Amino acid sequence: MQTYIALLRGINVGGHKKLKMEDLKLLCEDLGFEDVITYIQSGNVVFSAKEEKDISDKIAKEIEKRFGWEVPVLVKTADAIEKILKDCPFEEAKKAEAYFMLLATPPKKELMEAVSEISYPNEEFMLTPDCVYIHFGNGYGNAKLNNNFFEKKLEVAATTRNYRTLAKLVEMAG
Fold this sequence. Notes:
There is one protein chain. The protein folds into 2 domains: 2-79, SP0830-like domains (Alpha-Beta Plaits, 2-Layer Sandwich), CATH 3.30.70.1280; 83-173, 2-Layer Sandwich (Alpha-Beta Plaits). The strands form 2 sheets. Strands 2-3-1-4 form a 4-stranded antiparallel sheet, sandwiched between helices. The chain has helices at 21-30, 55-67, 78-86, 92-97, 109-116, 147-154, 163-173; strands at 2-8, 34-39, 44-49, 73-77, 99-103, 123-127, 131-136, 158-162. Helix 3 packs across helix 7. It is an alpha+beta fold. A hairpin with a 3-residue loop joins strand 6 and strand 7 (131-136). The model has no long low-confidence stretch (mean pLDDT 93).
């Protein structure tokens, strides 16, 4: 068995795609996952499962079947998330305020190179094939370099969480 962390994108935001965490927990258990725990209302799930491909698709298809809408689902092993946190390039003070845009697949090298040249005042980022580490000097709400920006420029699906959320998920997985 492997421990995974699933991150759903765009649920329970502004009254759209409402999904109770107890319903998400039950859905994951019905898919055969074990030790299922959810965390806060933004679609974070820790669970154990046999190693298999396409766990993201499996969860997304079941959500669509049960609730009638599509939602991007990104699944990584707990170890992979822990490594992403450990590899954060920011000093501890910035790391605690940082956001992590987890990428579903590695972007093309030429797209990564082009994006690396972009800059906005008070927004600092580092791009890797798995994650965009980002610190917003003026807060996430005012950011130009947001999740949608990076998805379009890198042509990959992504979902963003702050440091505290990811650290808590890794702790729960342990």
